[in-house]
């Protein structure tokens, strides 16, 4: 299914905001030439979005922001809007990352609001969902992911855009503990089924990415799962060799 070509996205978080980011982006442009079978996305800090997107123009590397404000403009000191991100050259935006939910108070409601804003202003959202360790141990994984998904499912279904959802178990992010392929596939298959219940076309066009300690040595097994359409990568995206090896595994 060409709509579900592998999507490999690097979430740089608050790293590589200057010259090292420009150099890493240039390395990712080279990686893109070696992996024509995958779509590559990088998500640098705001300060270099404009410069990186100029360098990546026409080079098959798309740019994502790590967050946005739901309003288009206004008196919101320190915030960045969807139209500004589009002007800076972004085509994607990560929404509801667990760090935003846990450290910056984002709720299912703000995630929904931001998802609607992204689509309204012409950005493709990568919306993140995932359970904590306590939730997994209490057997609540599917219930939590379903609740998070239901907050924005109608918004995705009302658009015809090829969006992405990232399943990122919180206990696997930055911990070196990845979900096993069977654990990941169980949740990915459930997400696909919930999408299909809402709209078969939505289930067809939505790429469901796995995130959480994806590394070169576990990428092949995770990306080989039938309902895993790519990866959202934190730590291993900060280094061109690891990011390249993961992209090659897709
Ligand atoms: C992330 O932050 O989206 C992530 C998956 O991080 P890491 O790959 O470092 O676990």
TrEMBL record:
<comment type="subunit">
    <text>Homodimer.</text>
</comment>
<feature type="active site" description="Electrophile">
    <location>
        <position position="97"/>
    </location>
</feature>
<dbReference type="InterPro" id="IPR020861">
    <property type="entry name" value="Triosephosphate_isomerase_AS"/>
</dbReference>
<feature type="binding site">
    <location>
        <position position="174"/>
    </location>
    <ligand>
        <name>substrate</name>
    </ligand>
</feature>
<feature type="binding site">
    <location>
        <position position="213"/>
    </location>
    <ligand>
        <name>substrate</name>
    </ligand>
</feature>
<dbReference type="InterPro" id="IPR035990">
    <property type="entry name" value="TIM_sf"/>
</dbReference>
<dbReference type="InterPro" id="IPR000652">
    <property type="entry name" value="Triosephosphate_isomerase"/>
</dbReference>
<keyword id="KW-0963">Cytoplasm</keyword>
<dbReference type="InterPro" id="IPR013785">
    <property type="entry name" value="Aldolase_TIM"/>
</dbReference>
<dbReference type="GO" id="GO:0004807">
    <property type="term" value="F:triose-phosphate isomerase activity"/>
</dbReference>
<dbReference type="Pfam" id="PF00121">
    <property type="entry name" value="TIM"/>
</dbReference>
<comment type="function">
    <text>Involved in the gluconeogenesis. Catalyzes stereospecifically the conversion of dihydroxyacetone phosphate (DHAP) to D-glyceraldehyde-3-phosphate (G3P).</text>
</comment>
<protein>
    <recommendedName>
        <fullName>Triosephosphate isomerase</fullName>
        <ecNumber>5.3.1.1</ecNumber>
    </recommendedName>
</protein>
<feature type="active site" description="Proton acceptor">
    <location>
        <position position="168"/>
    </location>
</feature>
<keyword id="KW-0312">Gluconeogenesis</keyword>
<keyword id="KW-0324">Glycolysis</keyword>
<dbReference type="InterPro" id="IPR022896">
    <property type="entry name" value="TrioseP_Isoase_bac/euk"/>
</dbReference>
<feature type="binding site">
    <location>
        <begin position="234"/>
        <end position="235"/>
    </location>
    <ligand>
        <name>substrate</name>
    </ligand>
</feature>
<feature type="binding site">
    <location>
        <begin position="11"/>
        <end position="13"/>
    </location>
    <ligand>
        <name>substrate</name>
    </ligand>
</feature>
<comment type="pathway">
    <text>Carbohydrate degradation; glycolysis; D-glyceraldehyde 3-phosphate from glycerone phosphate: step 1/1.</text>
</comment>
<comment type="pathway">
    <text>Carbohydrate biosynthesis; gluconeogenesis.</text>
</comment>
<comment type="similarity">
    <text>Belongs to the triosephosphate isomerase family.</text>
</comment>
<keyword id="KW-0413">Isomerase</keyword>
